[in-house]
Amino acid sequence: MELEKDIELQSDIGEKEVETHKRTDAKKEHRGKLLITLFLNTLYISTFTFGGGFVIITFMKRKFVDDLKWINEQEMLDMSALAQSSPGAIAVNAAILIGWKICGFPGMIVAVIGTILPPMVILAVLSFFYTAFAGNGYVALLLKGMQAGVAAVILDVVWGLGGNVIKERSKLSIIIMLTGFVAAFVFDINVIYIILAASMIGICKAILPRRQGVKS
């Protein structure tokens, strides 16, 4: 009897180990597919996006928020603010934040590589032909057309992110948004100062109710 119990116990342990290995393999496979999808999407977005960080953030939102639903709109809004307020290229900063959110450190590395690889290759090729392109009238017209398209995409970003702020129906957030726009557009105040001021207001908004709750 004891021998049979030992055999059954060992059999149960063996089955549990097999199930554990299967789950581990499934997680690794899922993580691998996730990283590949992340890399291919950031590579695609970076390859076919012209006009800078604000434009690429729009396409990242459409892909990772609207299509894949890996992150929500509020997280994307927060990441956009952090990407802009941090030193360095906005596109790379956004890739770091999105990659980290989706798949941790490996996701961050994959997203950054996918983002910087296309412009690095394209600029390396164009640098050899810069003198030929510089004085070409057709290239100049092409760039002007691209500028108009970029302006339209940036307006789309403003409309989408601004609409999310208005949907919250927070008077303070709307006032901060409008004040920041006036400060940047009318008074030409550096964006960094505007973001820092808005951040301080947000911190105060979060801290004050807690202190009042503690006192009461």
Automatic annotation (TrEMBL):
Decide whether keyword Disulfide bond is in the record. no
Q: Name one Pfam family in it.
A: Chromate_transp
Name the domain of life. Answer: Bacteria
**What InterPro entries does the record tag this protein with?**
CHR_Transporter, Chromate_transpt
**UniProt keyword annotations, A-Z:** Cell membrane, Membrane, Transmembrane, Transmembrane helix
Residue stretches spanning the membrane: 34-60, 108-129, 141-162, 174-203
The answer to keyword Transmembrane applying to this record is yes
Gene Ontology cellular-component terms for this entry are: plasma membrane
Q: Which GO terms describe its molecular function?
A: chromate transmembrane transporter activity
Query: Which compartments is it annotated to reside in?
Result: Cell membrane
Membrane-topology descriptor? Multi-pass membrane protein
UniProt similarity note: Belongs to the chromate ion transporter (CHR) (TC 2.A.51) family.
- State the protein's name: Chromate transporter
Species source reads Mobilisporobacter senegalensis
